[in-house]
UniProtKB/TrEMBL annotation:
CDD domains: HDc. The keyword Transcription does not apply. InterPro entries: dGTPase-like, HD/PDEase_dom, HD_domain. Keywords: Signal. This is HD/PDEase domain-containing protein. It holds the Pfam family HD. Residues 1-33 form the signal peptide. The keyword Signal applies. Coiled coil: none annotated. It comes from the Eukaryota. Residues 106-220 form the HD/PDEase domain. It comes from Aspergillus cavernicola.
């Protein structure tokens, strides 16, 4: 309804020459709105490349994800978190930092990824705590995502957003929201939730969602194969067992996923060309934060687009030239660029559980050829 009021207000300011064009359009939309289902309160908003959210009249939220399909969320704590400024902030943050922001790669967002990880654990029957842990696992991410690691992380340190998580959380109302709904604060420690986080190369919701979302968006995995992976997903031995694990019940599907993961790693996550852009952006940001021209608190307060404007304003002529090179030249040729020592080589060895078996086993055991394929990839990358 608010939208309607706004439209009529706009009309009163419109020059009379356009009013006669606008009026029939408004009338048409008014008539159309009568046919909109009574429980649809607002139109869907984009959460990123593959996902929309829609607030319904009964205060539930309908999530539509191209990979996962529809998920209706009605639990008050989840509805409140999904609408909180802290979670919504992640819509303005590109999963792939500078390359995503500049439109050189698909504009996958931290919001759709966080909600995707949440949907995955929800689908296998995780507790509400584990669902919240999945939704909030990236909540302390800064603008431009991992680009900031290249700007501000000290050697040997974890990701910047993880190191500064507690400091960030203290500035938010999230602890208060959780307390009001009786949710334990330990959900901020996602490592306590094995369906959400597991050491590489095992499967977990965080790793699986970014794998599917990136592999599909970058054209490394067919949508129907991504959906088969989701259809093959289970929590083993159960979603509430202490030693619970995300597994796939089909080795063939697990192999398709694991191969797509390696291809995406080679061409995207550990691509020397992408890392080169991260480093050059990181250098400018590092210099500006060091010099006090950009306050590091801002990293949690602005979107990628707002931050880029700030950088341009604060940059000296040399830094501005570096920024303009990034904008104009785009992703450099991979040839000749070396893989930096800090680069993480990512592979997957998901656990497979075929109904009836007592134990799950890594794909490399079920299918030993995968074990050697995976080793070969690691070797080829470390010789790069
Ligand atoms: C809220 O509305 C949706 C969409 O019409 C419906 O599917 C859902 O069951 C409703 N939820 C509740 C809790 O009434």
């Amino acid at each position: 309804m608010t939208e309607w009021r706004l439209r009529f207000l706009n009309l009163s300011h419109a020059p009379s020459s356009t009013a006669h064009i606008l009026f029939p359009i408004i009338l048409l939309r008014l008539l159309l709105s009568i046919h909109v289902g009574p429980t649809e309160m607002s139109s869907p908003t984009s959460a990123g490349v593959l996902q929309t959210h829609q607030l319904m009249e009964n205060h539930s939220i309908l999530i539509r994800d191209e990979i996962y399909g529809e998920e209706l969320v009605h639990e008050p704590v989840l509805v409140e978190l999904l609408q909180s400024p802290e979670v919504q902030r992640l819509q303005g943050i590109c999963q792939h930092g500078v390359t995503g922001f500049l439109g050189l790669t698909p504009r996958v967002t931290r919001l759709e990824h966080s909600v995707g990880a949440f949907i995955l654990v929800r689908r296998v029957g995780a507790t509400i705590e584990e669902q919240v842990a999945a939704l909030l696992h990236d909540i302390s991410h800064t603008t431009l995502s991992h680009v900031i690691d290249h700007a501000l992380s000290k050697p040997g340190e974890g990701s910047y957003h993880e190191v500064h998580k507690t400091r960030y959380l203290e500035t938010t109302r999230l602890p208060n929201i959780l307390a009001r709904h009786g949710i334990n604060q330990n959900v901020f420690d996602e490592e306590l939730f094995p369906l959400v986080e597991m050491l590489s190369p095992q499967l977990c919701a965080d790793r699986l969602d970014y794998a599917l979302r990136d592999a599909v968006s970058f054209g490394k995995l067919a949508m129907e194969d991504a959906r088969r992976v989701v259809g093959s997903l289970k929590a083993f031995p159960s979603a509430t067992a202490t030693r619970r694990l995300l597994v796939l019940d089909n080795p063939h599907v697990a192999l398709i996923l694991s191969r797509a993961y390696i291809t995406t790693d080679k061409d995207v996550w550990s691509s020397p060309a992408h890392i080169d852009m991260y480093q050059r952006t990181g250098q400018v940001i590092g210099e500006l934060v060091e010099a006090g021209s950009v306050d590091d608190k801002v990293l949690w307060q602005v979107s990628d687009a707002e931050f880029w404007t700030l950088l341009r304003q604060a940059a000296n002529p040399e830094q501005l030239r570096a920024i303009e090179r990034l904008e104009e030249e785009g992703i450099p040729e991979d040839n000749g660029l070396r893989l930096p020592h800090c680069a993480k080589i990512r592979t997957l060895d998901p656990d497979v559980w075929q109904g009836g078996e007592k134990q799950s086993a890594p794909l490399s055991i079920v299918l030993p050829t995968w074990g050697s394929e995976r080793q070969q990839y690691i070797l080829s990358r470390s010789q790069h």
